[in-house]
Design goal:
Elements (H helix, E strand, L loop, with lengths): L4 H19 L8 E5 L11 E7 L17 E7 L2 E7 L10 H4 L1 H9 L3 E10 L9 E9 L27 H13 L4 E8 L8 H10 L3 E3 L3 H9 L3 E11 L10 H30 L1
Parallel strand pairs: 1-4, 1-5, 5-9, 6-7, 7-8
Antiparallel strand pairs: 2-3, 3-4, 5-8, 6-9
Helix pairs in contact: 1-3, 4-7
Length: 285
Amino acid sequence: MHYTSDDLHDYKERVDEATDAIRDEIDQPPAIGIILGTGAGALAEEIDPETTLSYEDLPGFPPSTMEMHEGELIFGTLEGVPVVAMNGRLHLYEGYTAHEVVFPVRVLGTLGIDTLLLSNAAGGMDPHHDAGDLLLVTDHINKQGTNPLIGPNVDDWGPRFLDMSEPYDPALREIAEQTALDHGIALRKGVYLSVKGPMLETEAEYRYMRDLGGDVVGMSTVPEVIAARHMDVRCMALSVITDECLPDDLDPIDVEAAMAAAAEARPKLSRIMKDVVQEIGTTTS
C-alpha cells in the first residue's frame, strides 16, 4: 500500500480523536503502558481497575478479532502504580496494515506514556529452551516485510530515520533480570524474530530463522516496539515459550500443550511485570 501525506494526516487525526475521547473518561493519564499478549490476560485480573474502555467504543480504534484478546484498555493501578493495559492486541495476519496494528500504541504515546511493557507467546528455536520458559527479549529481527514507519513521517511523533540500535531498554531489562534472580525464576534471554503469520513455519524456515540469529519466533511485538521507540517510549518485552520449534525434531503444534505451557509461565510473567512496574513507580515518585 502506498501512503500519502493525506493518509498519514487522516491517521494522526484519528489517533488524536481517540486520545481526546480517552482523556474525557480518565482522571490522570498513566506513564506506564502494558500490552498483554496471548496467555497473559490473567495479569489484567491483578490490575485494580478504575476505567475500562472497549476498543469498539473509541473513535477510530480498530477492533481486535482474535479469541483470548478482549479488545479493551484497562486504566487502573498495578502494585499501587498507575498503568494502562491493552487487553488484546492487533496483528498483521488479521488483515490490518502495520499502521493499524500500532494504532493503540500511537494513542498511548500521545496520551503520555513513557514506558511500554510487552508480552507475547512465541515458539522456541533454541534447543536449550523448553516450552513453559520465559524469555527476556534483548533484540529483534523483523521478517514481517513491513513496518509502521513506511510512508510520510509524522514529525510530531518522531524522526524520519529512527535509530534502533537499542530497542529494548537496558535499565528495564536489568530490573527484570534482578526480579527473576530474587524470586528464583529461570529467565532466558534472546532475540525475538517476528513474522507475519498466521501459518506456522516449515522445517526449512525454522532452520533459516535460527541461522539468522532468532531464538524465538512470533507474530507480534516488533511493530509496536518500532512505533513506541519512534515516540521515544522505552520498551521491555517478555516472551512466553509455548512450543519447541526445532527443525530436526519438529512435531505438529499441539494447541492444548501450548496453552498448558503458557499457563505454566503465567505466574512468572506476572511476577516480573509487577516488580518492574513497582520499581518504576518507586524511582519516579
